[in-house]
Amino acid sequence: MKPLIELTIATSLPIKLNSTNHHTWYNQITHLLKANDLFGYVTGETACPPPKTGSEGNVTTNPEYTHWQ
């Protein structure tokens, strides 16, 4: 199933990183990641969910992982 909203960096970030605009680009990417609840994955504060869930003999695909992916 395709996600309802696809995040594409090229269309979401009008300012491309170069040798003179790091601060502006950093602020732009940080806001984008926070707005899409992705910032914690970049900083390591949020662990990605496990791909499988359940107990031995009853293991299924984790819907949280599917959504995260």
List keywords for this structure.
Retrotransposon Copia-like N-terminal domain-containing protein, elongated, alpha+beta, 69 residues
Molecular structure report:
The protein is an alpha+beta fold and 69 residues long. It has one domain (15-68). The protein is 42% helix and 12% strand. It has helices spanning 9-12, 22-35, 39-43, 63-68; strands at residues 52-55, 58-61. Strands 1-2 form a two-stranded antiparallel ribbon. The longest helix has 14 residues, at 22-35.
User: What's the helix count?
Assistant: 4
- Mean pLDDT across the residues is 83
Low-confidence stretches: none
Distance between the termini: 11 Å
Helical content stands at 40-55%
Strand content: 5-15%
Series of H and E elements:
HHHEEH
Tell me the domain tally: 1
Task: Please list the strands of the largest sheet in the order they lie side by side.
Answer: 1-2
Count of beta strands: 2
Anisotropy-based shape? elongated
Oligomer: single chain
Protein name: Retrotransposon Copia-like N-terminal domain-containing protein
